[in-house]
Specification:
The protein has 326 residues and is of the alpha/beta class. The protein is built from 11 helices and 12 strands. The protein folds into 2 domains: 1-143 and 284-326, 3-Layer(aba) Sandwich (Isopropylmalate Dehydrogenase); 146-281, 3-Layer(aba) Sandwich (Isopropylmalate Dehydrogenase), CATH 3.40.718.10. Helix 7 (174-192) packs across helix 8 (217-231). The longest helix is centred in the middle third of the chain and has 19 residues, at 174-192. The protein is globular, with a radius of gyration of 20 Å.
């Protein structure tokens, strides 16, 4: 049977609802369930001139996707929504969608979660501490997450995620690096079927510290963590200068690269495939993929939002769900 995938529609004032409606027109090899306010989707479809048939979700009745139809589990907005205008009263609606998706995935109702973008600022303004999807699902599942973005054969994972740059060095420890790289190795084997993943590890400092002259984290922390993992049989290399590891002839030696912080790795992946990159949360007991972009409030309701990243996220979720290992 086609896997049942749940799609959270994200920030209602952003492009999430637009993308959910756009993807409904496509041929998909899954059963797709969208969590959203059905009236919001109907109004946004009218604004965009899209002919999408919305049908209510019935868990007991499998319903493979048909182009032009979207199965929706209705969750009511707390306040009216205008495209492009954030409304703090709807922040808890957004997190409720994530709670529902997570519970369904943990209970095996859904084979995978695909998330449309949310707006972290308005969620925090509503008094709900929220760092990001990665941390949200980690807390709900009691797992240690690893954020990885992929486009084609390029895979970039992060040693730290949504942290101010001033806190990155202190957050990187031998223990945290060993745990992150072990998860990366395990899930590349599990989800991508790689028998022996080749992992490249970036240094934190320019030129990977230049032998200690530009910082010593590579000597004190990163290098020893790599050595410990190599003793355990993992194929890990580094610390590598981040300004050269992504050169194609160097990158060809690795199945994935671990960057030390958010803006060391993400600019590379977004340059390589902004419209096709997928955010995958590794280390969870559930499968979750996402778009690699934000809410794009200025595009909401205009018809100019590109669904490429969401299409890629959904296609990867279906592929990995079918390939799921122990």
């Amino acid at each position: 049977m086609a896997p049942r995938i749940v799609l959270t529609s994200g920030e209602p004032a952003g492009v999430g609802p637009d993308l959910c409606l756009a993807i409904a027109a496509r041929t998909l090899s899954c059963e797709l369930v969208c969590l959203a306010d059905a009236a919001l989707l109907a109004e946004r479809a009218r604004q965009l001139g899209l002919a999408v048939e919305l049908q209510p979700y019935r868990p007991e009745a499998p319903c493979p996707h048909q182009p032009g139809r979207l199965i929706v589990e209705h969750h009511a907005l707390a306040a009216p929504c205008t495209p492009g205008r954030l409304e703090v009263r709807n922040a808890r609606y957004v997190t409720a969608l994530l709670e529902r998706a997570c519970a369904g995935a943990l209970g095996a109702e859904f084979a995978a979660i695909v998330t449309a973008p949310v707006h972290k600022g308005v969620i925090n303004d509503a008094g709900v501490p929220f760092t990001g999807h990665t941390e949200f699902f980690a807390e709900r599942t009691g797992a240690s997450p690893v954020m990885m973005l992929a486009t084609g054969t390029l895979r970039v994972a992060l040693a730290t995620t949504h942290l101010p740059l001033a806190r990155v060095s202190a957050a990187i420890t031998r223990e945290s690096l060993c745990a992150t790289l072990a998860i990366l190795d395990h899930d590349l084997r599990r989800w991508w079927g790689l028998a022996r993943p080749r992992l490249g590890v970036c240094g934190l400092n320019p030129h990977a510290g230049e032998g200690g002259h530009l910082g010593d984290e590579e000597i004190r922390v990163i290098g020893p963590a790599i050595a410990a993992l190599r003793e355990r049989g993992l194929e890990v290399s580094g610390p590598l200068p981040a300004d050269t590891v992504f050169v194609p002839r160097v990158l060809a030696h690795y199945d994935a690269v671990l960057a030390m912080y958010h803006d060391q790795g993400l600019p590379v992946i977004k340059h390589a495939g902004f419209d096709s990159a997928v955010n995958v949360t590794l280390g969870l007991p559930i499968l979750r993929t996402s778009v690699d972009h934000g809410t794009a409030l200025e595009l909401a309701g205009t018809g100019r939002a590109e669904p490429g990243s969401l299409v890629a996220a959904l296609e990867l979720a279906v592929e990995l769900a079918k390939r799921r290992g122990p």
